[in-house]
Amino acid sequence: MVDRIVERIEQLPPIPNVIGQLQNLYYYDDYNTSDVEEVLKQDPNLVANILKIANSPYYGLPREFIEIRQAIAYFGLEQIIEFALATVMDGIIGLDLSFYHITPLTFMEMSQLKSKLAKYGITEKRDRFVVANTAFLSDVSKVLISNYALEQGVDLPDRDFPLNDLDGIEGELFGFDTIEVTIAMFEYWNFDREMIDLLRNFKEPSNPREERLYGVRDVVTLHGRLDPERLDRYPHYKEAAKRIRRKKG
């Protein structure tokens, strides 16, 4: 049961209060670059980490951002919030991910791919935010499960499983899976109830948000790739993948 790693969840660092303030700005759509900057400057460490991510080779920017206002203006608040959430993940993915045969960089790239696919084509602001951020963080508990598995001497075949399939394998190995543990982490962090409910219900989708999350985790693999056979089932994601590749290229 998930209770086996509850103590590990309770040892996680808290979510910075600044992230909640950024989310409120985003939801109410009543902000400018200066407002976002003022909120972020309450947490200098978060600012430094966001700039580190923004300036990473992954984004291939032509020049380095020195001031946080430059990053805000270039990326926008939605992406800045994802960077802030990524810093939370970065604080715990230093744990050993070798059970899954992936590196922290692969894990982060996989998370970013899920978010990009999930929000593609969504025009309603709150839906876009909830679906994209839930997708981005849906596998964050793998960092805890990996360490638990290594301590227990449990092995996983070195294969590039689609994420939905991997949930079933984890259930057979442990009696719990990534989604169950991530729900517990979301509750510990007092995340948005809509994100928790989405994560709790998407395996039997009954609305567009749930269908989005299920589809994303059905086509994205553990190694941050797209399963070509699964992708044929989801024309929407196939088109999104083409656009993401062109933009990255």
Main sheet properties: none
Which percent band covers the strand fraction?
Answer: under 5%
Number of helices: 15
Spell out the helices and strands N to C: HHHHHHHHHHHHHHH
How much helical structure, as a percent, in the residues?
55-70%
Rg over CA atoms, rounded to whole Å, is 18 Å
Instruction: Report the structural category.
Output: mainly alpha
Distance between the termini: 43 Å
Please state the average pLDDT score: 89
Molecular shape? globular
Q: Which ranges are low-confidence, i.e. pLDDT below 50, for 5 or more consecutive residues?
A: none
Number of β-strand runs: 0
- Count of the separate structural domains: 2
Description:
The structure is a single chain. This protein is 64% helix and 0% strand. By secondary structure, it is mostly helical. It has two domains: 15-91, no CATH class; 102-249, no CATH class. Helix 2 packs antiparallel against helix 6 (77-90), helix 8 crosses helix 12 and helix 8 packs parallel to helix 13 (208-219). The longest helix has 16 residues, at 104-119.
Can you give keywords for this protein?
globular; 2 domains; 64% helix
Map the helices and strands.
Elements: H1 6-10, H2 17-28, H3 33-40, H4 44-54, H5 68-75, H6 77-90, H7 104-119, H8 125-137, H9 142-152, H10 163-174, H11 178-188, H12 193-201, H13 208-219, H14 228-231, H15 235-248
Helix pairs in contact: 2-3, 2-6, 3-5, 4-6, 5-6, 6-8, 7-8, 7-13, 8-12, 8-13, 11-12
